[in-house]
Amino acid sequence: MFMGLPVLSDSLQDYLVKISAFPVLSREEEHEIAVRYYKYRNIEDAHRLVTSNLRYVVSIALEYRKYGCRLADLVQEGNIGLMTAVKKYNPFKGTRLITYANWWIRSFIQEYILRNRSLVRREVKALKKKLFYRAPLGEALPECAGGGCVDAADLSLDSPLGDDETTHLDMLVDRTPGQEDALAVREERSLVKGDVVKALAHLNDKERFVVERRVMAEKPESLQSLGETMGLTRERVRQIEGTALKKLKKRLAGKRSAA
């Protein structure tokens, strides 16, 4: 459907130079072109809408590099999400294209990461902790005596010793059983990480997007902000979040009981 787009191969700098040749549209220009494309489906209009937002795709793809995928692949998936958004965008609903496209871009990138299991890393353990140890909605977290809680296990015992995944906990000496038990513990941890990733893959796009922005993010996005991005009410986003967390917990709990 779309004309050829620049491809990110090895050099991010070269790719940025290529896409910088495409003009950024003003709000008025974008709306005019989007309305025309919505009515007449002219491929040149679609191409202008896509190319004017390629820089934004790169900025989002860079956020996901920590999951171990090639940046070129993340950008490619993000571009597909952007093209999908352009095809589905309704300019008469009052939302800017890039606000609407943000959801699609992230959705395609996340789906790619989940398909390519390289995200099974330390971040997954942090996600699992957030999923199962969050305070109920509306409740504040308890304050700790002496001002400020420190999760010693996460901060020290579970921190990596080097570039591999061996942690301080793995290297503790004998008040634990033997080497075979230590290896079994490490194997179980890997399985748990894989289970979390598989559970995420069973969420639909909206649920996974909300979990990623509300649960996985270091700074969770507000319900109001997510609602504006997704074109939904604050309450509807809250419902999606609740449903997604229930699905994840149920799937992971079922995995444990089956083990």
Q: What characterizes the major β-sheet? A: none
Order of helices and strands: HHHHHHHHHHHH
Q: Can you give the mean pLDDT?
A: 75
What is the count of β-strands?
0
- CATH superfamily (homologous) name of the largest domain: Winged helix-like DNA-binding domain superfamily/Winged helix DNA-binding domain
Helix proportion: 55-70%
Helix- and strand-based class? Answer: mainly alpha
Q: What characteristic shape results from the CA principal axes?
A: globular
Helices, by number, come to: 12
Strand content: under 5%
CATH class of the largest domain: Mainly Alpha
3D architecture notes:
By secondary structure, this protein is mainly α. It folds into two domains: 108 residues, Four Helix Bundle (Hemerythrin (Met), subunit A) (Up-down Bundle); 137 residues, Arc Repressor Mutant, subunit A, CATH 1.10.10.10. The protein is 63% helix and 0% strand. Helix 11 packs across helix 12. It is globular.
